[in-house]
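Notebook entry, structure prediction.
Reason for the run: the old model in the group folder had no record of what sequence produced it. Starting over properly, with the input documented here first.
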Amino acid sequence: MSVVRVLVVDDQALFREALVTLLGARPEVEVVGEAGDGQQALERAAARQPDVVLMDLHMPVLDGIAATRRLRVEQPGVRVLALTTFDDDEDVFAALRAGALGYLLKDVSSDRLVEAVLSAARGESVLQPSVAAKVVARFAQLDDAPRPRPQPLVVPLSDRELDVLRLLADGRSNREIATALFLAEGTVKNHVTNVLGKLGARDRTQAALRARALDLL
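New structure, fully documented this time:
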């Protein structure tokens, strides 16, 4: 993949500058602009054409959720990653409904943040472990009406793929899964691809939901 163009949006100038410095030091990423509120984010995104927008949620003028919703309409090719302080249910589901591809907390490590940006640029969903758990729980509770049981997998998951699936459903990155299972990161990436394919899932969140429905988790 070519260098990923990133727009940093946060109303706290010190934190925003720290993010710009951190990301700017990584060869895989180019920071193409920054903004202090949602309205500025829309203007900068239109002018700079980023691949990924790191979007704070609680900002003046136009909040991050409203900005995400408009950005997904005005520039549907841009991926939005919510990066905020809180993971309360209201913020999480509002951001995801608005079109954010991922949701991270500001205490995320620098390596995890960069990996999330690269994953988002590839169109992959990226969720903090605590957020992934909320999403799975919410879908499990959507209604209590009986549903037909999903068809079993045509090709079952191997034991190793099940190990990867459990960690993936916890919101772990490929690097974190590799460390936990003592595997090469490239091997984990192959396992994740196989898991998504066997589950018929387009991304990691959908894989976790389908696995839960099949009692694989």
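Summary: The chain has ten helices and six strands.
The old model has been moved to the deprecated folder.
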